[in-house]
């Protein structure tokens, strides 16, 4: 119960941070970080899939309401939650994580290369969906991929900063 309250407060804070601060800062044409994605990487690997997908929908919808983005965050968050669940079940050794006392993947549990691969690939999935919905035309695939790639790097940089600031491990 306390854990759910902690995630809810963090989600609301990250939604307001995204909608009212980060979105308002002009970082150029290609760099559009979305640091709220970090919230998905600290979810317990044993979380109920339905609850995570429903929460991703509500969280994305909240950001859409605050920023007026008409479903782009909702679609990207649900896609990320689905991709993360699939990755966690198929490629991540959750038993090993749990034996180490970790509820989610950390650099200390599997090493930095595995952690950055995990976070980078899933963040890229989120960003491709988000920017595909943003550009919403097939002829913009080059811009979608370039913006997704650069924004993924910026997002990872921001949430490594968040992780260093708020982590107890």
Map the helices and strands.
Blueprint: H1 2-20, H2 38-41, H3 49-67, H4 72-90, H5 94-99, H6 107-110, H7 112-135, H8 141-166
Helix pairs in contact: 1-3, 3-4, 4-7, 7-8
Please summarize what this structure is.
The protein has 169 residues and is mainly α. It has helices spanning 2-20, 38-41, 49-67, 72-90, 94-99, 107-110, 112-135, 141-166.
List keywords for this structure.
single chain, 169 residues, mainly alpha, 8 helices, globular
Describe the fold and architecture.
Helix content is 72%, strand content 0%. It has 169 residues and is mostly helical. Helix 3 packs antiparallel against helix 4 (72-90). The protein is built from eight helices and no strands. It is globular. The protein has one domain (2-24, 31-166). It starts with a helix and ends with a helix.
Helix content: over 70%
Q: By helix and strand content, what is the structural category?
A: mainly alpha
CA-based gyration radius = 15 Å
**Shape assignment:** globular
The averaged pLDDT comes out at 85
Tally the structural domains. 1
Terminal residue distance: 22 Å
